[in-house]
Amino acid sequence: NFHQTVSLGSNLTICSGASISLVLGASLATSYSWLPSGATTPSIVITLSGSYSVTVQDAKGCIAKDSIHVYVKGVNPVPGFVAPNSCFGSSTNFMDVSTLSSGNITGWSWTFGDGTPITTGIPNPSHSYSVAGTYTATLTVTSDSGCSVTIQKIDTVNSKPTALFNYPSLRCSG
């Protein structure tokens, strides 16, 4: 029975901007109607706490409906960081530039793409790479409401330049 296989799942606690969709029956649904928004998409983005329901129809014309209560616990941070290119043998100074519209960022978790252990609790770490190359650095920031978002950026560690110069032989006169 189609109406028994459609479910939004249990009530949820999420961060503003997260989406909800069917956890069961989505592959059978051919049309959607969400309340209170009136959206007709397979998922909707949630920004406010409240009750949400969806009415779906399958290819045979059967209709099913489910409801869920969603509690929005906070706002997701907007992650960002700066990692200037560096030379091998020098530290790369990472700088968190994440923002949050409401509340505070209270957690930072960094990986530097070279297999070293995760660095946590530091907004602006310094890291030394053991080999020149291109690395994917990752920052996960967490707000005081427990909302977290991850961003990745490429960090380039250049080889040390080699100085090549010639000097003429000195001739002393006299």
Please sum up the structure shown.
With 174 residues, this protein is an all-beta fold.
The side-by-side strand order for the widest beta sheet comes to: 8-15-14-11-12
Q: Taking Cα atoms only, what radius of gyration do you get, to the nearest Å?
A: 27 Å
The helix content, as a percent range, equals: under 10%
Structural class designation: mainly beta
Number of strands: 15
Distance between the termini: 110 Å
Cα shape: elongated
Helices, by number, come to 0
Largest sheet: 5 strands, mixed
Order of helices and strands: EEEEEEEEEEEEEEE
The proportion of strand residues reads over 45%
Average of per-residue pLDDT values: 91
Poorly predicted sequence stretches spanning 5 or more consecutive residues: none
Characterise this structure:
By secondary structure, the protein is mainly β. The chain has strands at residues 12-16, 19-21, 29-35, 43-45, 50-58, 63-75, 81-82, 86-87, 92-93, 95-96, 105-111, 119-120, 126-127, 133-143, 148-158. The strands form 5 sheets. It has a 5-stranded mixed beta sheet with strand order 8-15-14-11-12, with no helix packed on it. Strand 14 (133-143) and strand 15 (148-158) form a beta hairpin. It is elongated. The protein starts with 11 loop residues before the first strand and ends in a 16-residue tail after the last strand.
